[in-house]
Write a structure and sequence with these properties.
This protein is α+β, with helices and mostly antiparallel strands. The chain contains four helices and seven strands.
């Protein structure tokens, strides 16, 4: 297994991986090639892919605003799960954020994504029940749920 920084050239394979995973949410703007290029340009040292036999089998997008980190769209191809790939990607991503001076990381998981929620809990990510998450689209977005 090879782990390396993600580049925009990886986008088609990463997008295909995301679409193969159940219970994730995307949109046509932020998760387009242009949207992901913006994220990679702002966070060139914190997004990673896992590669096996020249196939991208895992991805983690870690970003930060200079004070807090955020994990976006971590995924592992279904037939490569339970091999430690997600845990390794998370360790690499968290180290990269820590190296940039980030001290706290957040992420979002759909409530009905049982496997995802179980993974994040097993990795020490606490469920916050004391806050409400809110957002507002500034442009029309087409939602893509897997």
């Amino acid at each position: 297994m090879e782990y390396r920084l993600m580049t925009i050239d990886d986008y088609p394979a990463v997008y295909d991986l995301w679409m193969s995973c159940k219970n994730m949410g995307f949109n046509d703007k932020d998760d387009s090639e242009e949207g992901i290029k913006k994220l990679l340009d702002r966070n060139p040292n914190t997004c990673f892919v896992a590669i096996c036999d020249n196939i991208i089998v895992g991805v983690i997008l870690c970003a930060n605003d200079g004070r807090r980190g955020f994990i976006h769209h971590m995924a592992v191809r279904e037939n490569y799960r339970r091999l430690g790939i997600a845990k390794t990607l998370l360790e690499i991503g968290l180290k990269a954020l820590k190296d940039e001076g980030i001290t706290k990381v957040a992420l979002l998981v759909f409530k009905y994504n049982e496997a995802g929620n179980a993974f994040w809990e097993s990795q020490g990510f606490e469920l916050r029940t004391d806050i409400n998450y809110r957002n507002k689209a500034l442009t029309e977005l087409i939602r893509i749920d897997t």
